[in-house]
Amino acid sequence: YLGSDQAGGNGEAGTDATAHNADRPDPKEAVMYFSEQGDALELARARDPEAEAALREVLLDNPDELRCLSALADILVRTDRATEALPMLKRLAKIQGAGAMEILALSQVERTMDLPEWEEHFAAARAVDPEDPAPLLFLGDWSFKAADYEEAIGFYQGALELDPGNLLALIQIGTSHSLLKQNKKAREALNQALAINPDILARHAANRL
User: Fold this and answer.
1) Distance CA 40, CA 55 (A)
2) What is the pLDDT of residues 58-85, one digit of tens each?
3) Higher-confidence residue: 104 or 23?
4) Is residue 145 within a helix (H) or strand (E), and if so which, with residue range?
5) 101 burial type by CB count under 10 A (0-12 exposed, 13-18 middle, 19+ buried)
6) Concatenated DSSP letters for 38-101?
7) Do the Cβ atoms of 174 and 162 come closer than 8 Å?
8) What is the mean pLDDT of the chain?
9) Are the C-beta atoms of residues 160 and 168 closer than 8 Å to each other?
């Protein structure tokens, strides 16, 4: 038989235990939250039209959830809502655990909006990992979209120096040379891409030459 002190009915031990249990998260709620988060991210990966609403619902409970915030910002950028995405990307870049890609995404949107801060954030993204080819691929893509293929090739080659097996850089170098009617150089780059990974995109590009 336990007395009231031992059982914690009216004693301090019982009060402390009750307070401690009250502070602990409900396991069922935690499981439900992570399930909703996983479902929302899966919808985003599939580019499902319901993804945006699902991500916003998750972010109501945790506004700084890195992956969901990044996925929502990506949706906004892809659907030409850069102005709405910008504050999210700024918050993303400051969240602990954010890396070069989050800062680079911010820089990309800022450049699209002709904001001068893009250069500062681009430099910050490169400083995170100077060996990461992603920032140079970003500049290459920007130049490619502007039809400055010579400049694009320079950036893609810089990325290739950092990562000699970078398939995207090789394909884009080949495509840029092709658009400049430099077919021999285009074939060389695309054949290298095919040797690394004979996927349908590289094969199709090579067959067009």
Assistant:
1) 5
2) 999 889 898 999 999 999 999 999 999 9
3) 104
4) helix 134-145
5) middle
6) HHHHHHHHTT-TTHHHHHHHHHHH-TT-HHHHHHHHHHHHHTT-HHHHHHHHHHHHHSTT--HH
7) no
8) 83
9) no
87 torsion bin: left (phi>0), alpha (psi -120 to 50), beta (else)? alpha
Please answer whether residues 101 and 134 qualify as being in contact, where contact means their C-beta atoms are separated by less than 8 angstroms.
yes
Give 1's pLDDT tier (boundaries 50, 70, 90): very low
* DSSP for residue 116: T
Q: How far apart are CA 206 and CA 8, in angstroms?
A: 77
Whether this model's pTM surpasses 0.85? no
Q: Angle formed by the axes of helices 167-179 and 149-162, to 10°?
A: 160
Report the length, in residues, of the chain: 209
Per-residue pLDDT of 78-131, as tens digits, reads 999 999 999 999 998 888 777 888 899 999 899 989 999 999 999 999 998 899
Amino acid at position 21, single letter: N
For tokens 């450049």, the residue is 111
Q: What is the DSSP letter of 25?
A: P
